[in-house]
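User: Please go through the entry that follows and flag anything odd:
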Amino acid sequence: MGEPETSTAAGTTATPPKADTAAAGATAAPPATPESSPSRTASLLKRLGRWLERDHLPDLGDLRSLYEASPTDHAASKLARQWADRYQAADADERRSLLAGLVRAGAECAPAHELNSRLFRRLYAQSDRLGLMVELRADMLRWRNQVAGLAVLEQELAGLLSNWFDVGMLELRHINWDSPASLLEKLIQYEAVHEIRSWDDMRRRVAADRRCYAFFHPRMTEVPLIFVEVAFAEQMAANVQALIDPARPVDDIGKARWAIFYSISNTQRGLRGISFGNFLLRRVIEELLTELPRLKFFATLSPIPGFAEWLGKCGGADIQDCMADKAARQALAQDPRAGAQWVERLRAAATAQADEPDEVGKTGLRLAAHYLRQMRGGQPLDPVARFHLGNGARIERLNWAADRSAKGLEQSCGLMVNYQYELDQLDENRARLAAGKPRLSRGVQWL
């Protein structure tokens, strides 16, 4: 289970932020300036028709009013609505040009921080489309290294979105086969871990012995922001092919003792860095314990998406300690391409062999255990490990040939990992991670 690269109390209705409300932690905006004169308003509105034609970009002087005019300025509000409409209908090239114009206009305004916040609040208030603001940030992330100054606007918008998507505003919903077809289609579209290949596949993912939960925002009621897929089992799952097989018979949920989170997907690139996943898992665990009190254990069956790339860059000296044979360790030490060669060996072995690993597979398990302990900047190197270990889980077990899909072989040589959540150990595990020592089960320590 992973969060492409990727929250709690539900059912609270949120109202859209007012244009003059300061962002969380931001300095309050300066007092509003007097209303525009009728002649200025008429002049600005007259020019709107010209620059809103597809062949003309907005005049920088007009765009400055989006930053500087008072929240009640009629001409600036009209301009914000027109700009939002044009942006919504534009193709990628035009969107980039429109964003570049905003950046250039903002560069002539001061103080930038306060006025950037006013710009986005005005656009949101006038467009009444929270989804547009999420699209704006997704585009800013896409072009932030191509348009000078765009990163500053992107950071300002990220702060506002973090406030607007506070987890207390989100609603948790159970999705099943009776949910609207349009919603099920979105799950098929957004599934980022294990592709949903057909409607039969979709039906199995939401069958009676499965659960799917998603967070929604009250201003984006038809768009799941993040969703998790859950299977139930008598023991911890070790193979995702068996778990997601559409032909698998429906299990007796009453016998289940394990809840297995096997896929978690963020759907909105514009909300990157605004994490809902940890809150989602906590809420789902609460829901499951209420519905199925006989459940005792909660774990994931997760990909290791950075493993093959990391291993492919390793020289022999980096991985020789993972070799069981002393002679093999010595031979490996001087080979700069040893890691890349092991990637190919593991992929071939995972494709051809039975579920039980031979010596090649056992070496692969040791290499994966070594990789999952790698840290960078005080955080786990692997993005999925970063998410689950950061939430307080521990690395429980590594599984050989657990995902033989093309994606599984490409990213992790077919290996998968179980992260286990024990509710009374989450805080302790987070403290160990902060000290640079992620929590491992005895079996993984032995590897």
DSSP finds 20 helices and ten strands in the chain.
